[in-house]
Amino acid sequence: MGSLHDLGATMTKTYCLELNGAFACFTRPEMKVERVSYDVITPSAARACFEAILWKPAIRWQVRKIEVLKPIRWINLRRNEVASVVSTRNVETAMKTGSGDLGLAIEDDRQQRAGLFLRDVAYRVHAELEFLRARDPDATPSKYQEMFERRARRGQCVNQPYLGCREFAAAFRLVDDAAAEPAPIAETRDLGFMLHDLDFSHPADPQPRFFRAHMQGGVIEVPAWDSAEVRA
What we know:
alpha+beta, 10 strands
């Protein structure tokens, strides 16, 4: 599943997950009202699936490759959504006093939105589990590697991985030998600029960063976060 590299302050090992689901929506950030998906899973959505299985302060996931296993197919749907969220002020009041109004009247706050979603999707996603030694100096990389492998093999997760939207749950499987698996789709296309991930240097105002995504024979190579190919 990949070799172990000594990077001084960090150690990495590559893992592969197969993800699939009936529907998916990896929302384009430029679409302000209606939800329109990218053609394939974004690195940030793929990272979230790995983190749903294992996340700790001393590790970091870096998605490096995405394999598209099924033809890209679309579906138009209209969904009911709640237009607002419970206010932070109400939550703070309830925490301080032990009571408060934390409910929303769905019938009064419902709105209908159209969406262009993906259907019947499947991917193999390759990501590096990066061990940050400075955050857990007494641990070894194998501690977290064994933890992830054990959880992924048993189908365990902290929260259910999802394909862009929480209602689109993802089934997952740890792939031991990607070379022995069925080939990705035989399709090549330029996918344009795609969301790579969010820059949380300023947590109050995270900024999106993008890369030019090319699918070659069903495979998308994902550049490193700090490479020149990733830009704001």
